[in-house]
Design goal:
The longest helix is centred in the C-terminal third of the chain and has 26 residues, at 174-199. The radius of gyration is 37 Å and the shape is elongated. Residues 245-250 have low confidence and may be disordered. Helix content is 56%, strand content 11%. It has helices at residues 10-19, 21-42, 67-75, 77-84, 87-97, 103-109, 130-152, 174-199, 206-213, 225-239; strands at residues 47-56, 110-113, 120-127, 156-161. It contains ten helices and four strands; from the N terminus they run H-H-E-H-H-H-H-E-E-H-E-H-H-H. Helix 2 (21-42) packs antiparallel against helix 8 and helix 5 packs across helix 7.
Amino acid sequence: MEEEYKEIDLKELFFVLLDKIWIILLTMALFILGAVLITKLFMTPMYVSTTSVYVMNRQNNEGVATSADLSAASQLTKDYEAMVTSRYVLEQVIEKLGLNIEVGGLKKMVSVSNPVNTRLLEISVTNEDPYLAKNIADAIALISADRIVEIMGIEKVNVWDEGNIPNGPSSPSLSKNAAIAGVLGLVLSCAVILIIFILDDRIKNSEDIEKYLGLSVLGMIPLDESMQASKKKKTVKTRQKPRNTVSDRK
């Protein structure tokens, strides 16, 4: 059994999309409008407050930090990152601020990072309340600093920067969501148009007869435009309702 293949002309597909450009643009506009409405009405703005602490290892007898001390402090930074989000620290933060939240929920709000080649720990807290985000970040910085000194034997951990009050939400991004929705609308509309075109196997003109059936067209019968116009006029007249006339007889 021979398999049938349909030849696809990329140039033809381009002109098919160009002919339906209004559908593509309309779909993109609807997707973008939907993304804007969803972002504005159904997504909660989230704010990020960031604080940082400086970790200093123990010094030698002369009170000077040696290169070995500095190297050790850098290597232990990963341990410090884990201790910042430990259960003990988070429980102390919840108790201090009187938060009505579980440790697991608070941990999801907190992220810790270490800038390259530094002994700084940056603690970021994400919350829908910018002031609460700042308070949590500051509390975590203070409590974790004391905990690191106590457990790891560090000389001291100082708060480098207090948490900031965010000026605006970090998420969701209206422009990003609109851009994603626009691209999605473009891709889906183009895909639907092309699929419909490729699956359409109807014969529309003489070129399709020669291309798909392998038959030569001997001749074509042109349509008389005047006959078509008269047919249209008759159709319009039959659709009109007859008027009721009243004649006065003396």
